[in-house]
Each structure stands twice: as structure tokens, then as C-alpha cells.
Amino acid sequence: MKDDSSNISKTSIPGVVLIKRPIKIDGRGFFHEIFRKEDLKEATGIDFNPVQWSHSMSHPGVIRAIHTENWNKLIYPVTGILYAPIVDLRPESPTFGKVEYITIDNTKEDSLRQAIFLPKGGIGNSICVLGEEDLNYLYLVDEYWDDSKAKGVAWDDQDLNIKWPVENPTLSDRDKNNPKLRDIFPEKFAS
Which of 47, 140, 182, 187 could serve as 74's disulfide partner, Cβ 3.0–4.6 Å? Predict the structure, then answer.
């Protein structure tokens, strides 16, 4: 199912792209080729070589945010509704502090089935589960998980002012205690 990189859309944050490859639906279900390495490289300039494949499941009302690891990451939601505020946390970036909102609804057989690619080096990844269905998503990364390298920013940081669509979310202890953007990058807020 060869197609070209025209199915890859850039977002307002450099390096973050949405992959929208065609879906073949018939009476049995569907087939979806999620990404092609050479098309992603052509669109981003990044030679993505995954070494770890993970599966995350979250219940409705859960927020996992705002995480940043130093790896390239391809996220593919399989079921449920993914609401993903993506944040540019690269201090040298002209879009530092910018939030890109991406929603992917995979609750229907004919859902678009998009994937999100996040480049390494300071892109904050977060998810919120909408609707009544659990969210299952798979993600590929090009570096092995190392808890000591895990970083984050407060999910409710006032400087980011993320518009979360749930009240009283379920959060991990780590996410409840992540530092504020001003604490990590005080030079960006000096008057």
C-alpha cells in the first residue's frame, strides 16, 4: 500500500507531524498501514529507528501529562478518544511554550486512524481520555525507557494554560508533582 508523504501534515510546532495514511475497509474490517519510515524521513528529516514498542491503556477522565523524554516517538491510538495537548518545551525554539491540540477519535470502524510523530529534544507529550471508552494506544520510541531520564511539566501550569476538557482528572503522583515551566526555565520569564 505505497503512498507518498503527502499524507503527513505538519503542525504549528516544528517537527511534530500527523500521519494520515489511507484505510482499506471491507466486510471483514479494515487494514491500515500506520507509517512508512522513508515517508516520515522525507517529511521530517529524521531517520526514525524504533527500539521499543509499548502499549498504554487509560480509563476515561485520565490525564497523563506533560511528559518529555529525549527520544523520537510515534503514537498510534487504537481505541477510544485521544485528546493530546502537545507542548514545545525547547528553550531555543521560536515556538517555545506553544500548545498544539490534537484530537483523534477512534471509536468508529471508519475513524481516520491517525498517528502522531514527536521529535526528541523537548516536545512535551500529554494525553487526556475523552468519552466513555478506554483509550488504548501504542507507541514506538528509538531509545529504551530509562526512568531516571523521565521529565515533566505540571499538567495545570498557568503559563501554558492548557484547556483540559475534564474536571477532577485522574493523575499519577508524578504528574501531580511535576514542576512549573517557570521553575525549569526561569530565564524565559525574567522581566
Answer: 140
Catalytic-residue membership of 83: no
User: Domains, the chain, ranges and CATH?
Assistant: 48-189 (2.60.120.10)
- C-alpha separations of 119 from 3, 112, 137 in Å: 22, 22, 18
Please, are residues 136 and 80 in contact by the beta-carbon 8 Å criterion?
yes
Q: In the block, which residue shows the cell 490534537?
A: 102
Cell matching residue 139: 507507541
Among candidate residues 67, 76, 83, 137, the one labeled active-site is 67
139 has catalytic annotation = yes
Q: What is the mean pLDDT of residues 9-28?
A: 92
Please tell me the pTM assigned to this model.
0.91
The full DSSP string for 55-106 is EEEE-TTBEEEEEE-SS-EEEEEEEEEEEEEEEE--TTSTTTT-EEEEEEEE
Distance CA 179, CA 155 (A): 9
From 83, 101, 139, 144, active-site residue = 139
